[in-house]
């Protein structure tokens, strides 16, 4: 029932130039998407219009040209670099005598090929069903007839209505299963929040190098390739940073301009990792001529999912593709890192990223000198368990003089424990 590519499919691409920026798409990006889907491109037809045609999206003359080009090169698929209405798809298929796919359907199919986990497959199926539910009429005019025959005559429900009802039921079933997955994710997030473990989420335009950077930092083997949407399923890894401790690093799906709304809705549980992160690593392919536009598109998607208020650290990746690329950290007037220049593929500047993460996530530290009696040996053990004792000395009167350095959060927690166990304030032992 779904549009699925088969190996060896050959397509004619159609790209329309519009004067307004909001309607404009990138032809080179379409070619990358088609290549990522495993389809061969036999030709490209371009056009220029001020507004789409209601019948064919392009003008009738250009539609005839597309049909002739399909016949001439022997293509079995036409892919538009734009979103088509169900009626436009049906009219184009009748004219070209082959399947017609729009940009949304192409991205959905790539996602279907990339899904590996149970959750990812459910999310893709949900997005496909929502997209398909508006297109059941395409090429299925025989479904408009009512059922007939012994045992099939009933309330007069048409086959088309039956299919729509079945799809609605399947959508409800998938959403219920995804709700369970979301609850599990929320439990994991709450556990990390209770343990006060910061979460850092990698975001960026598709093919910016997020997975390569993720693998470099965490020494993982997440699939990374020079193609669009190589990563679909989110991956979490724990890291240790000096003066910060444990952090969770999340690799997420890449964004793209005009990301289909069906995908944004279906991947809500996954994208929540980004929404509730403490810091976003916005990875940018600095060698891409469209980097400014790509960054704007990522910002728009972050705003759509409610993650635009999360602090960001810009990671300028692929400096190895620049003539004057140099690994460095750019800081603001207060000395806080705002940009890190690196090459995830070669590893240049990755240690600078760790330093920048430490500077951005390092909690406020407390440095104190404690003087405690020998009877409070349990407190001394807790301080060592927290790895916060930087120096120790035994005084003439038998008391212990401890030099302590810990995060303000750990200090406040320890103060409460001491007040409960010893009935005294820890501040009273500070020299």
Automatic annotation (TrEMBL):
GTP binds at residues 204-211, 229-233, 251-254, 317-320, 343-345. The keyword Magnesium applies. InterPro entries: EFG_III/V (IPR035647), G_HFLX_dom (IPR030394), GTP-bd (IPR006073), GTP-bd_M (IPR032305), GTPase_HflX (IPR016496), GTPase_HflX_N (IPR025121), GTPase_HflX_N_sf (IPR042108), P-loop_NTPase (IPR027417). Mg(2+) binds at residues 211, 231. Residues 198-365 form the Hflx-type G domain. It is found in: Cytoplasm. Its main location: cytoplasm. Keywords: Cytoplasm, GTP-binding, Magnesium, Metal-binding, Nucleotide-binding. Its cofactor is Mg(2+). Signal peptide: none annotated. Pfam families: GTP-bdg_M, GTP-bdg_N, MMR_HSR1. Monomer. Associates with the 50S ribosomal subunit. GTPase that associates with the 50S ribosomal subunit and may have a role during protein synthesis or ribosome biogenesis. PANTHER family: GTP-BINDING PROTEIN 6-RELATED, GTP-BINDING PROTEIN HFLX. This is GTPase HflX. It comes from Pseudidiomarina salinarum.
């Amino acid at each position: 029932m779904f549009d699925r590519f088969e190996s060896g499919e050959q397509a004619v691409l159609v790209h329309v130039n519009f004067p307004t920026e909001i309607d404009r798409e990138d032809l080179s990006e379409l070619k990358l998407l088609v290549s990522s889907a495993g389809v061969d491109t036999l030709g490209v037809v371009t056009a220029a219009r001020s507004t789409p045609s209601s019948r064919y999206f392009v003008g009738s003359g250009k539609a005839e040209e597309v049909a002739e080009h399909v016949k001439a090169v022997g293509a079995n698929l036409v892919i538009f670099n734009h979103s088509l209405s169900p009626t436009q798809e049906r009219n184009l298929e009748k004219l070209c005598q082959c399947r017609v796919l729009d940009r949304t359907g192409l991205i959905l199919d790539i996602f279907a090929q990339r899904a590996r986990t149970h959750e990812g497959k459910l999310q893709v199926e949900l997005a496909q069903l929502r997209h398909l539910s508006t297109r059941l009429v395409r090429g299925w005019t025989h479904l408009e007839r009512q059922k007939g025959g012994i045992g099939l005559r009933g309330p007069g429900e048409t086959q088309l209505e039956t299919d729509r009802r079945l799809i609605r039921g399947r959508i409800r079933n998938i959403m219920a299963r995804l709700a369970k997955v979301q609850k599990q994710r929320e439990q994991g997030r709450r556990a990390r929040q209770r343990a006060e473990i910061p979460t850092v989420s990698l975001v960026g335009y598709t093919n910016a190098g997020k997975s390569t950077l993720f693998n470099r930092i965490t020494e993982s083997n997440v699939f990374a390739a020079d193609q669009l949407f190589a990563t679909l399923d989110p991956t979490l890894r724990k890291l240790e940073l000096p003066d910060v401790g444990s952090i969770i690093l999340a690799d997420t799906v890449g964004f793209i301009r005009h990301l289909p709304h069906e995908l944004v809705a279906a991947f809500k549980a996954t994208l929540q990792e980004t929404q509730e992160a403490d810091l976003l690593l916005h990875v940018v392919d600095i060698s891409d001529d469209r980097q400014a536009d790509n960054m704007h598109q990522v910002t728009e998607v972050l705003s759509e999912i409610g993650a635009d208020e999360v602090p960001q650290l810009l990671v300028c990746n692929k400096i190895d593709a620049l003539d004057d690329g140099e690994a460095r950290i750019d800081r603001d007037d207060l000395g806080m890192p705002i940009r890190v220049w690196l090459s995830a593929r070669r590893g240049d500047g990755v240690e600078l990223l760790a330093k920048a993460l430490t500077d951005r996530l390092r909690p406020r530290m407390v440095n104190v000198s404690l003087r405690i009696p020998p009877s409070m040996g349990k407190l001394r053990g807790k301080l060592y368990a927290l790895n916060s004792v930087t120096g120790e000395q035994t005084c003439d009167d038998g008391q212990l003089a401890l030099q302590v350095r810990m995060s303000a959060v750990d200090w406040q927690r320890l103060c409460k424990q001491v007040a409960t166990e010893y009935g005294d304030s820890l501040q009273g032992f500070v020299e």
